[in-house]
Amino acid sequence: MHMGIRVVAQTYWRKTVARIVGGIGTSHVPAIGAAIDNGKTEAPYWKPLFDGYAPAREWMQETAPDVAIIVYNDHASAFSLELIPTFLVGVADEFQPADEGYGPRQVPVVKGDSKLAWHLAESLILDEFDMTIANKMPVDHGLTVPLSIMCDQPSEWPCQVVPLGVNVIQYPPPTGLRCYKLGKAIRRALDAYDDDIKVVIFGTGGMSHQLAGERAGMINQEFDQNFLDKLSHDPDSLAAISHKRYIQEAGAEGIEMVMWMVMRGAMNDDVKEIYRHYHVPASNTAAGLIILENAN
């Protein structure tokens, strides 16, 4: 009888580990990092944007996740056109800030969670996602700027990080639907993980912007706000957005928003929106931020 009780207790305990405590969607504009690094956050141009980050940073501090899975894209820092992983998981113990042409950002080294990363790699590959495994790589603004947005300027980052890279640079990128399904596979992996940890998952990139061509500098606030609205209560419609529509509505670099769908797929079907901040312009793009928690 006592053994049966112990088995039941163990089963119950395992259902409460590796909890996703929040999902964050955020832009990763490099100029945001530069404004932080160069003490420009109180300048008139930047102050409205950074004032809006304060409640998000409070939420991050209060929630105190153990690990952040950060879905981002490399900007030819760790990889070039010679090697283009569609999906990648970084399994190293640490990741150095990348030199993007003006020296590495003077931010803390990103500490990895190798155990969780290898678990994700195994689970996702056996779940039929072909993940590239990175044992060593630098991480650029795509990953470090979201950390700065949510954590400001600490002497060391307050949580470990598992980098999860997505190709949105070279055609063809994965669809929003495929990214949404990847998020669901990540959730299955976390549900099977046997460490009692609190996890937050970031989907980064975007929002609407185009860096070159006749439409350089375009911003579509209506599309962005609609995306934020539907992220909470109608993610299936967002997962159906085609590459062509992203380019038409959100600009060539708006395709980065498919990475927000990885985050949304990892959350419950029912979520509650905790916080939202949207600001135009931040450099030559729209900057969005949203925090979701599972409703049940």
The total number of structural domains is 1
The secondary-structure element order is HEHHHEEEEHEHEHEHHHHEE
* CATH fold-level name: Protocatechuate 4,5-dioxygenase, Chain B
- Percent strand equals 15-25%
- What's the number of extended β-strand segments? 10
Q: Mind telling me the CATH class?
A: Alpha Beta
Tell me the CATH superfamily.
LigB-like
Average residue-wise pLDDT? 94
Shape: globular
CATH architecture: 3-Layer(aba) Sandwich
Distance between the termini: 32 Å
The proportion of residues forming helix, as a percent range, comes to 25-40%
Q: Which strand order spans the largest sheet, edge to edge or round the barrel?
A: 6-3-7-2-8-1-10-9
The number of distinct helices, counting runs of at least 4 residues, comes to 11
Largest sheet: 8 strands, mixed
SSE-based structural type: alpha/beta
Radius of gyration: 19 Å
Uncertain spans, ≥5 residues at pLDDT below 50? 1-14
